[in-house]
């Protein structure tokens, strides 16, 4: 396949790189990467060893010492070149994202576009790493705060956004003066290897140090666990399930490291009686079936006012019948496969649990077989009736299952249902009523990190800070002032006077 060739993906690939050199370990076992699109073997990756990890950390730390001394706007210039290199390979990389992960080609290309966009954002940010100047309470004193580079950042990423989330962390971290070590999901290492190959050209042509952007592929938690415990990594950014994030947070906090946690969601859309259903319906379908329900921001709960419940239910069942399921690389399809057979099992188990707990499946729930579905990872998206307090509804099932939940009375009741889960990532309301939308966005409204009006829960822009509250972990990445998470803050006081006014008016006879 030509896109594999363009991206330097071979039949067998090494799993550890310092940005310039690939470590040549090949005795630790290998990952065989099968495409969920067609069930075919794409390529394999040799797993990294403990020695590889050690080598990578040392190089990343040495690179940090150099990189932090490069003026921030010059660091931005390197990121600008990375953005251009990604532009050159957008088609190939987007295609590999689609083939390895299973999201539609449009979404694969969109993910690479997000990488390009965050590069552009980071270039601007490189000239705006501002601290504040504060008026001192003491005479002839100046007080200000400034932000310094932090160190080597560990980036642990999830399979569903195999490259974009890395770039949110790595590009912002890079302009902040940090170097990074990337541990991608072991389900999607090929896209990470491809990115590393794209970066190499920029690193070499600028004579940048080895270790600026490193990659390490380990099986499951092998390498990741080492990173969590490693004091040489002052910040670990974890994107993944709440289970992994909870464990990560415990281990990292024990050593007083910093963590950015981007964990699971259980996102809801509220539709009130005044809503424009011409907006709401496509908003719900896009957010619920996009990426086959495997986005952290996927809509999992639809909270409908009782007066429009039956109408919206019927419209949704009809809309779901028009969703074309098939090979994600065929642009006429809307929904591709789940990542693997394990995910299909989780989907079936959730449907079983839903029925046992009293819910009703209205449409979907089948695993597709036959021509075009040989991988065994294609399922039909589900619309089901449920209660918010069902244990299965309280969980994030990473599959296209949408629970319809009825509310009565005022919007406050719908907001209470929206908030009555452990996760707090994304939320939305469809309404044409000003009081309702303002109530949803007010301090007594949605408790999520993302709250939208008249658009769905997914499809966040990189310019805003991305992340969520409660068991979603509290981290923020990407735009706004998320860059502050990648730097250490220092408060400085300078006395340019002739006296030394001590705090609390204390005087010594010296
Ligand atoms: P996962 O939790 O299974 O894995 C995430 C990453 O953690 C992988 O790289 C994995 O290898 C690594 N890992 C596993 N055990 C580890 C350990 N002990 N120490 C260190 N690392 C370890 O998640 P997944 O299935 O790849 O992704 C889906 C999950 O990610 C969903 O819950 C989804 O909501 C979440 N997600 C959240 C966001 C967000 O921004 N909030 C974005 C994307 C995905």
TrEMBL record:
Record's keyword terms, sorted: NAD, Oxidoreductase
Active site: 262
Annotated ranges, domain Aldehyde dehydrogenase: 26-491
Annotated GO MF terms: aldehyde dehydrogenase (NAD+) activity
Database matches in SUPFAM superfamilies: ALDH-like
UniProt cross-references to InterPro entries, sorted A to Z: Ald_DH/histidinol_DH, Ald_DH_C, Ald_DH_CS_GLU, Ald_DH_N, Aldehyde_DH_dom, ALDH7A1-like
Lyase recorded as keyword: no
Keyword Oxidoreductase recorded: yes
EC numbers: 1.2.1.3
Quaternary data: Homotetramer.
PANTHER family reported in the protein's UniProt record: ALPHA-AMINOADIPIC SEMIALDEHYDE DEHYDROGENASE
Family that this chain belongs to: Belongs to the aldehyde dehydrogenase family.
Name of protein: aldehyde dehydrogenase (NAD(+))
């Amino acid at each position: 396949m030509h896109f594999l060739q363009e991206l330097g993906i071979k039949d067998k690939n090494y799993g550890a790189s310092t940005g310039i050199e690939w470590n040549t370990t090949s005795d630790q076992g290998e990952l065989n990467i099968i495409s969920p699109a067609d069930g075919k073997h794409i390529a394999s990756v040799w797993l990294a060893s403990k020695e590889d990890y050690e080598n990578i950390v040392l190089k990343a730390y040495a690179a940090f010492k150099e990189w932090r001394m490069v003026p921030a706007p010059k660091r931005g210039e390197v990121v600008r070149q990375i953005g251009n290199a990604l532009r050159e390979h957008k088609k190939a990389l987007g295609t590999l994202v689609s083939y390895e992960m299973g999201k539609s080609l449009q979404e694969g290309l969109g993910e690479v576009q997000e990488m390009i966009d965050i590069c552009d954002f980071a270039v601007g940010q490189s000239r705006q790493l501002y601290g504040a100047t504060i008026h001192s309470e003491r005479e002839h004193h100046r007080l200000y705060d400034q932000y310094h580079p932090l160190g080597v950042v560990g980036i642990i990423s999830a399979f569903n956004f195999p490259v974009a989330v890395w770039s949110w962390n790595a590009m912002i971290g890079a302009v902040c003066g940090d170097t990074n070590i990337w541990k991608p999901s072991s389900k999607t290492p090929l896209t990470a290897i491809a990115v590393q190959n794209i970066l190499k050209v920029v690193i070499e042509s600028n004579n940048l140090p080895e270790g600026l952007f490193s990659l390490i592929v380990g099986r499951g938690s092998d390498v990741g666990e080492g990173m969590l415990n490693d004091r040489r990594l002052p910040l670990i950014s974890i994107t993944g399930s709440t289970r992994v994030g909870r464990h990560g947070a415990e281990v990292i906090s024990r050593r007083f490291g910093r963590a950015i946690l981007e964990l699971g969601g259980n996102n809801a859309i509220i539709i009130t009686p005044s809503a424009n259903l011409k907006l709401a319906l496509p908003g719900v379908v896009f957010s619920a079936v996009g990426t086959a329900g495997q986005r952290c921001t996927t809509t999992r709960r639809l909270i409908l006012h009782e007066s429009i419940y039956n109408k919206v239910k019927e419209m949704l069942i009809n809309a779901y019948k028009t969703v074309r399921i098939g090979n994600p690389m065929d642009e006429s399809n809307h929904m591709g496969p789940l990542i693997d057979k394990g995910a299909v099992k989780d989907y079936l188990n959730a449907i079983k649990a839903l029925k046992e707990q009293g819910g009703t499946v209205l449409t979907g729930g089948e695993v597709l077989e036959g021509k075009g579905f040989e991988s065994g990872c294609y399922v039909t998206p589900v619309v089901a009736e449920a209660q918010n307090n069902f244990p299965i509804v309280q969980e994030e099932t990473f599959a296209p299952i949408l629970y319809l939940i009825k509310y009565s009375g005022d919007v406050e009741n719908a907001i209470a249902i929206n908030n009555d889960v452990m996760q707090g990532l994304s939320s939305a309301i469809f309404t044409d009523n000003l009081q309702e939308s303002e109530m949803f966005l007010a301090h007594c409204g949605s408790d999520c990190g993302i709250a939208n009006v008249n658009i769905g829960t997914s499809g966040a822009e990189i310019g805003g800070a991305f992340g969520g509250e409660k068991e979603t972990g509290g981290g923020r990445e990407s735009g706004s002032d998320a860059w502050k998470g990648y730097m250490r803050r220092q408060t400085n006081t300078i006395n340019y006077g002739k006296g030394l006014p001590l705090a609390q008016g204390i005087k010594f006879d010296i």
